[in-house]
Amino acid sequence: MLPTKRYALIFLRRNYLQRLFVNYRGGVSIKRRSRTDIAVDILRVAMNGAKKTHIVYEVNLNFNIAQKYLEMLKEKELIKHENGLFITTDKGKVFQEMAKELKL
């Protein structure tokens, strides 16, 4: 049974909550993440070391976009690639904390 309101707020869980607004005509609009949000998510997943595949699935990106972000984060020395794992650097941890504080 559908509620009388035009939009219903539905929470889906895929490693974290994503907000989807579903209208009753079948359309779905997704709240977009900023570049900073995506970078912070990648740094969070790579905190203890993560393979590219793990980052892609945890952050919900496709491989091509993930590759661009990983290259950018490596250039800025926020993440490093060692033994097949991406690991957040100390500089990356500081960036992550600063981004979290600015978000509040």
Describe this structure in words.
Helix content is 44%, strand content 24%. A hairpin with a 4-residue loop joins strand 2 and strand 3 (28-30). It is built from 4 helices and 5 strands, in the order E-E-E-H-H-H-E-E-H. It folds into 2 domains: 1-31, no CATH class; 35-103, Arc Repressor Mutant, subunit A, CATH 1.10.10. A 3-stranded antiparallel beta sheet has the order 1-2-3, with no helix packed on it. It is an alpha+beta fold and 104 residues long. The model is unreliable at 4-21 (pLDDT under 50). Residues 32-102 form the ArnR1-like winged helix-turn-helix domain. Pfam families: HTH_45. This is ArnR1-like winged helix-turn-helix domain-containing protein.
